[in-house]
Automatic annotation (TrEMBL):
GO cellular component entries: mitochondrial inner membrane; mitochondrial matrix
Function: Promotes mitochondrial protein synthesis. May act as a fidelity factor of the translation reaction, by catalyzing a one-codon backward translocation of tRNAs on improperly translocated ribosomes. Binds to mitochondrial ribosomes in a GTP-dependent manner.
InterPro entries (alphabetical): EF-4, EFTu-like_2, G_TR_CS, LepA_CTD, Small_GTP-bd, T_Tr_GTP-bd_dom
HAMAP family for the chain: LepA
Annotated protein name in UniProt: Translation factor GUF1 homolog, mitochondrial
Recorded catalytic activity of this chain's protein: GTP + H2O = GDP + phosphate + H(+)
EC number per UniProt: 3.6.5.n1
Key words, A-Z: Elongation factor, GTP-binding, Hydrolase, Membrane, Mitochondrion, Mitochondrion inner membrane, Nucleotide-binding, Protein biosynthesis
Keyword Hydrolase on entry: yes
UniProt record similarity statement: Belongs to the TRAFAC class translation factor GTPase superfamily. Classic translation factor GTPase family. LepA subfamily.
Length: 565
């Protein structure tokens, strides 16, 4: 395929507007997957994606298509479709995928119209200089109002109303116009075929058998199996052991030509060597590296610990594998006195964090305890020093120098909603359950009055329960945390004192009185089976406990506590 017969495009949309369904239909239309293959949202491979009905990880599929224009011979095209996630937490995946494309189908729900992520994704595509093909989907719905949505697309993005395609990915209505529009309107990839090889590494994942699989877009030149390639940022060189396309399963082709999107296998064992955004070139040639990507900014940090202390190695292995498939998580080892050895992970947002935990459990069978998520804060002390904090436990409770200032990150939020709801917007924002859709971008750090809130059990601070809060909220949060913990910690053989403290000042306290009876009190020594059963039961209960000093804390307490504040 010469590059003028190649089109690389993406589908971008707000969450649930039908990207994955449309991708399925296009793959069926081109015979890439069989019709009625019984697995809707084909590219949503992860269990978490199927359960939540959302796309988390961008996927890619190569399709072959015979385009027939009136009176002319049909002509074969190679189309690379890159499916992208819709949720705001995963914009990073979107911008990465777009860098391998020249155009994008902007899918908008015919009833809901333009939503926050439609706007955000439109601008990502626009800034990447992509040709936009507007598609209004779900026109089969009774509440569909394509004319209103067309007008929105015109007024918000200056898109020509005549260019808008009207489709139903569900019934198939209008779908025959989509691929011809892709071919006609989206330019072929601009690379130079007789220039030295230059490829962009835009994604990677780990395969048990093949090792690291790198998704690449060939910008210039061509690549064959057996070639020696070097990675510009990592400085490593490898032999290409396998090369091919995603059709949509990995399919060896032996070569990749200018403008193609495909995969390479090099025998790399860890994705640390595969830096997303890196330029790959033929060893011993000199090329100008490609611009690459903006570094990820982590908005939320949380500790991830094995639920059973002895499982650290298994967790470590699982996290390494999973970060191979999700390069947007940052991982650093940390130790907690309460929870033992674990990791501090940085995420793009709370949904991203949730999905990461779920994948750890579902794909790697590890049970984890996660600590209260926190945003990164900055503190300044009277000696002029500054401390960046991603873990509340790392902030000294009684510092040597006085805290003179503290800062927290903020975002610029865009909320798009029908005008009649404007009056209620404040409430919608505060409970996050409203009709409005939400988008945000990073803004600067702002000065804010922050304090560390410690939780003490019988006088001992539990590092995993420490939080950083606004001073004016500290008393309320402290009181709520103490109350919650009281409900979660069962009575022990001795009295348990629960305190919340800011530095050495106790701001809330409560006690759990000692247990009087023990579990065996009722078995007068005679019935040994019953005694055993009771002891077993008690042991089972203990398994899900974490012992802090002499106090047993149930695992769920660590998770439930974060619902306060
Ligand atoms: P994310 O991947 O989470 O961003 O969602 P998505 O945009 O890929 O949406 P998806 O394809 O998962 O579709 C969301 C829902 O809309 C599913 O229940 C689909 O069955 C439904 N849907 C998709 N296209 C149509 C359509 O043309 N008509 C109707 N009525 N429903 C549709």
């Amino acid at each position: 395929f010469p590059s003028e017969k190649i089109r690389n495009f993406s589908i971008i949309a707000h969450i649930d507007h039908g990207k994955s369904t449309l991708a399925d239909r296009l793959m069926e239309l081109t015979g890439t997957i069989k019709k009625g293959h019984g697995q809707p949202q084909y590219l949503d491979k992860l269990q978490v994606e199927r359960e939540r009905g959302i796309t988390v990880k961008a996927q890619t599929a190569t399709m072959f298509y015979e385009n027939k224009v009136e009176d002319q011979e049909a002509s074969g095209y190679l189309l690379n479709l890159i499916d992208t996630p819709g949720h705001v937490d995963f914009s990073y995946e979107v911008s990465r995928s777009l860098s391998a494309c020249q155009g994008a189908l902007l899918v908008v729900d015919a009833a809901q119209g333009v939503q926050a992520q439609t706007v955000a994704n439109f601008y990502l595509a626009f800034e990447a200089n992509l040709t936009i093909v507007p598609v209004i989907n779900k026109i089969d719905q009774p509440t569909a109002d394509p004319e209103r949505v067309k007008a929105q697309l015109k007024s918000m993005f200056d898109l020509n109303t005549d260019d808008v395609l009207l489709v139903s990915a569900k019934t198939g209505l209008g779908l025959e116009h989509v691929l011809p529009a892709v071919i006609e309107r989206i330019p072929p990839p601009p690379g130079i075929s007789d220039s030295p090889l230059r490829m962009l590494l835009f994604d990677s994942f780990f395969n048990e058998y093949k090792g690291v699989i790198c998704y690449v877009s060939v910008v210039d030149g061509m690549l064959s199996k057996g070639d020696k390639v070097s990675f510009a940022a990592s400085g490593q060189s490898y032999e290409v052991l396998d090369v091919g396309i995603m059709h949509p399963e990995l399919t060896s082709t032996g070569v990749l030509l200018t403008g193609q999107v495909g995969y390479i296998v090099t025998g790399m064992r860890t994705t640390k060597e595969a830096r997303i955004g890196d330029t790959i070139y033929r060893t011993k040639t000199t090329v100008e590296p490609l611009p690459g990507f903006k570094p990820v900014r982590h908005m939320v940090f949380s500790g991830v610990y094995p639920a059973d202390g002895s499982d650290f190695e298994a967790l470590s292995h699982a996290i390494e594998k999973l970060t191979c498939n999700d390069a947007s998580v940052s991982v650093a080892k940390e130790t907690s006195t309460a929870l033992g050895m674990g990791f501090r992970c940085g995420f793009l947002g709370l949904l991203h964090m949730d999905v990461f935990h779920q994948r750890l459990e579902q794909e790697y069978g590890t049970q984890v305890i996660s600590t209260i998520p926190t945003v990164p804060y900055t503190f300044e002390y009277s000696d002029g020093s500054k401390l960046q904090v991603q873990n509340p436990a790392a902030l000294p409770s009684n510092p040597k120098y006085r805290v003179t200032a503290s800062w927290e990150p903020t975002v610029i939020a865009t909320i798009i909603l029908p005008s009649e709801y404007v009056g209620a917007v404040i409430n919608l924002c505060s409970d996050r359950r409203g009709y409005a859709s939400f988008d945000y971008e990073d803004a600067e750090y702002q000065a804010s009055d922050l304090v560390k809130l410690d939780i003490l059990l019988n006088g001992q601070a539990v590092d995993a329960l420490a939080t950083i809060v606004h001073k004016q909220k500290a008393y309320r949060v402290g009181k709520e945390l103490v109350e919650k913990l009281k409900n979660y910690i069962e009575r022990q053989m001795f009295e348990v004192m629960i305190q919340a403290a800011i530095g050495s000042k106790i701001i809330a306290r409560d006690t759990i009185s000692a247990m009087r009876k023990n579990v065996l009190a009722k078995c007068y020594g005679g019935d040994i089976t019953r005694k055993k059963k009771l002891l077993e039961k008690q042991k089972e209960g203990k398994k899900r406990m974490k012992r802090v000093g002499s106090v047993d804390i149930p695992h769920e307490a660590f998770q439930q506590i974060l619902k306060v504040s």
